[in-house]
What does this fold into?
Amino acid sequence: MNEQAAAQEKLDKLKIGISIGDINGIGLEVIIKTLANPKIIDFCVPVLYGSSKIVSYHKNIVGIDFLFQQIRNAERVFPDRVNVVNCWQENVNILLGKPTDVSGKYAYMALDFAVKELKAGNIDALVTAPINKEAMQMANFPFPGHTEFLTQELGNGKESLMLMVSEELRIGVATNHLPIREVAGKVTKDLIARKLKTFEETLRIDFGIDRPTIAVLGMNPHAGDGGVLGDEDDRIIRPAIIEAKKHGMLAMGPYPADGFFGAGYYKKFDGILAIYHDQGLIPFKLLAFGSGINYTAGLSAVRTSPDHGTAYDIAGKNEADPDSFREALFMAIEIAKNRKEYYGDRANALVRRSKIKSESGIEEEEEELEDELEDELEDDQAYEDEGYEEDEEEQ
It folds into this structure.
């Protein structure tokens, strides 16, 4: 590679922001273990938001060589180094393994600084290390978690979709962090329709899937069993799926969650929309824990995070596995590049090349799903003729 090409490659590398999360947890441990690999610099320019003093403290616990460069912000970075933005200057008391108002306060400060940089265009994507909800509440963080804060800051007035992603699974959650007693009251036909629209756009734009297939899980056991176990699936969820099909989406369901995962049917779909938190995250963590990531779909910017929490029980013991954080970092790079390619193609009036490969059997599987969709549309017409849509409109 000549000098000019090498210089251009440096300019083309994306700047990936990283908020340090809870300083009493394992966030900085998995960050340091990931960024200490010198090959990371070949793929991106890491910009870590927090404090060089806090980073040094955790570096001593990990006990590996980890060099970084302090900067004021990400407008000017060192492209061949890990960059650390000092979001505060004061000394901070670290109590490993415990939620405190101090750990919540500085996690909030690091996150807020990073989001401002993201909105300003100084970084291309954001990876958030884990926070603790109790600590954040102690620090008067006015949101249930990262997702809700980022939706306010980057959602442009629209809802986001919490999406758990691994190599085999993409599971979205319609109602996020809600007590189970509140779920039924929040689920509406309009909510499911909006989440499906966001999901479809995300799979197409951020993941490069030209015609994504989406399964929707039922809310009740056995998807209501014809109304015997609750009417929400027939009265709310299925009409939303019908509406999505009419708008050209390859959406299907509602499927009983237990049989759907138990029979391995999840492998047939590009995305799965769960109705509530544990319905989606329990199977996801059983099938992909440690290798999956959390992605906030529907935002104006890219944000990922590892699929684990602060893990206070092992904080400071140098036992944390960095695999999920590493996946979150590389997923942020990939999605940011996919977005640039997608919008760049359209700005130049180019036709986006299909990523469906016939040799992998995906074309054949898509045709089978389309046949199934045609059968479902016939069933849906009979369903509408029974008057369920009119019943919902009257309520």
The longest strand covers residues 44-50.
